[in-house]
Automatic annotation (TrEMBL):
Name recorded for this polypeptide: Sterol desaturase family protein
Native source organism of the sequence: Flagellimonas marina
Transmembrane segment boundaries: 41-60, 72-97, 109-129
Primary residence: membrane
Pfam families per the UniProt record, alphabetical: FA_hydroxylase
InterPro entries associated with the record: Fatty_acid_hydroxylase (IPR006694), Sterol_desaturase/TMEM195 (IPR051689)
PANTHER family with a match to the protein in the record: ALKYLGLYCEROL MONOOXYGENASE (PTHR21624:SF1), STEROL DESATURASE-RELATED PROTEIN (PTHR21624)
Domain of life: Bacteria
Single GO molecular function: oxidoreductase activity
């Protein structure tokens, strides 16, 4: 019976409905109009959409089962290992760095906008490094392994990625004066929206969200980010406000004539948990081992994925330049 109870609690936890159930049980429905009440209603949206998407997948007979299976395994694995380390890192960064902030923001709408722009900067830094430093790519590549886009990809992360991401994002925010309460509010919005942008074509065929595509980062932009097409690789690093992609020139819109190919360029088995989770680490270890000289060994750790000590680089930058050259010639 204890096992069934644990299973029940896990399912309720995954669906994000424990808070809402508590309010329903208490009988005090007015709680739904408070901040906590509203949050309790927003939490279940993404998990419920994920299930709807899965059902639609069965109806349309799209071969996504592999992606869901591996991402489910990753969810279970991270559920027990990764989350606690990330929470500890956030608390640690706040405690360490808050004293060095030149000023402190308050809970007002204009500081909220400021806080969100700062958060996006932290997100850009973490995400950019996750793509451009091979050691960090080992943490991030699990998220890019799926060859299909759907809401289960939201859960595809290496367990050390959340602590690494939250350390950078929290540090940037706290040093720039974002108060912790504001930070947690932004984290909640960012987490929910960051999950939503992985919505699959079964539910949302066109991910551009109309005119919003011009203003914010939409599922369409994030589909581009997950693509391995030469024009698309290493673009759109932001999450909701894509100002930093525009500032740092990594902004890329979806092109009608280019069919998105999801996944990473390495030969891999995206249905194999071990390959999705540890494949990049094994590949990096091999390159470091085989590299001549200590300098080259270090360069493999720090240079972008695809860098080669022989000078025959296969980085995203090289692929994109070659594509743009050939497009110009045609
Ligand atoms: Zn990425
Ligand atoms: Zn993603």
């Amino acid at each position: 019976m204890e096992f069934l109870e644990t299973l029940y609690n896990e399912v309720i936890g995954f669906l994000g409905i424990s808070q809402a159930l508590e309010i329903l049980r208490s009988g005090d429905y007015s709680t739904f109009t408070t901040y906590d009440g509203i949050v309790s209603l927003i939490y279940p949206i993404i998990p419920l959409l994920l299930i709807l998407e899965l059902i639609l997948g069965f109806i349309y007979k799209k071969p996504q089962a592999k992606v869901y299976k591996v991402n489910f395994l990753i969810y279970i694995f991270n559920r027990f290992v990764g989350r606690f380390i990330a929470i500890a890192m956030v608390a640690l960064c706040i405690g360490l760095f808050q004293q060095y902030a030149p000023f402190q923001t308050t809970m007002t709408w204009y500081w909220f906008i400021y806080g969100y722009i700062v958060w996006e900067l932290g997100h850009f830094v973490y995400h950019y490094l996750g793509h451009k430093v091979r050691l960090f790519w080992c943490l991030h590549s699990t998220h890019h392994a799926p060859e299909d886009m759907n809401l289960s990809v939201t859960h595809a992360h290496f367990f050390l990625e959340a602590p690494y991401a939250d350390t950078i994002r929290t540090t940037v925010c706290i040093l720039l004066g974002v108060q912790p309460e504001m930070l947690f509010l932004i984290m909640f919005i960012d987490g929910t929206y960051g999950a939503f942008i992985h919505i699959g074509e079964n539910i949302l065929k066109n991910g551009r969200l109309g005119f919003l595509n011009k203003i914010i980062l939409t599922p369409s932009h994030h589909r581009v980010h997950h693509a391995k097409n030469p024009l698309y690789m290493d673009t759109n690093f932001c999450n909701l406000l894509n100002i930093w992609d525009k500032v740092f020139k990594t902004y890329q819109e979806e092109q009608h004539h280019i069919q998105i190919e999801y996944g990473i360029t390495r030969e891999m088995d995206s249905g194999n948990f071990l390959d999705v989770y540890f494949g990049e680490i094994v590949a990096l270890a091999k390159d470091v081992w085989n590299a001549p000289g200590i300098g080259n060994k270090f360069r493999y750790l720090l240079m972008p994925p695809g860098w080669n000590h022989t000078g025959n680089h296969k980085t995203a930058k090289v692929a994109r330049s070659a594509y743009l050259e050939s497009a110009k010639a045609n």
